[in-house]
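Researcher: Next entry in the queue.
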Amino acid sequence: MSTTFQLDTATSRATPTPAPMKRLTVPRIRSRKVDGTTQTPLVMLTAYTARQAQLLDAHCDMLLVGDSLGQVIYGLPSTVPVTLEMMANHGAAVVRGSYHSVVVVDMPFGSYEASKEQAFTSAAFLLKETGAAAVKLEGGAAMAETAAFLNQRGIPVMGHIGLTPQAVNVLGGYMARGRSDNEAEKIVSDAKALDDAGVFAIVIEGVVEPIAVAATRAVACPTIGIGASAQCDGQVLVTDDMLGMFERVPRFVKKYDDIAGVIDKTVQTYAEEVRARIFPGQDQTYQPKP
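Model: Structure for this entry, 290 residues:
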């Protein structure tokens, strides 16, 4: 059964729901890059829940339901164990919680690599179950034919090159890519292959800056950097990383706040009040009517 039903704003904690407005579209995102230039960089963050989507939506052009949820939400060691069902459930929640951003859902490892037909079945499932606008898949030239196959059948695709977390076992870790001449050439050629295949945007992750810039200049579609360059056409980060929810983050993350510290302090205060029988007080309890 589809999970794309709407929040009941009369009963949900997620109220008030923002006034609806016209949602951005994939063609609008693609058209932001004109003659090789994006005047205003695209803003993308990850989102995994309806409430998180509500808080991010007004500030972003795109929300990525990343398979990073495997680590961020489920505590898994990598993104490899993430399933289609996990992506569908969280994708539906993010769509319900947003009204402005283009929602893109990651295709998890093992759901698209075997064949173009497998990729279509998986992508169609994700779009039907979530109501999202597009899917993202990892891989360059090797996935170009698959990306074109999906695009020709009405499924917008965002590419992902450079450091591709689903291939961490082949890559041997999360090191920056593009340091050798051969690897640098491959990253740029991967970007061109995906662009020719019709992807509407390409994530460039963990790539040395000059190569990220070269790849950005080599393609007509927007590039979204993460650990790449400010000269990419947009940027994405894992929201929990940039909010300071974790002590250890990749070196390319800027922590904009210390939300983990705020939570720790707040819960400490709550625990102290419970143990001192200060909470709940009169304002939080029901008294007999006079």
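Model: The chain has one domain: 26-242.
Researcher: Noted, moving on.
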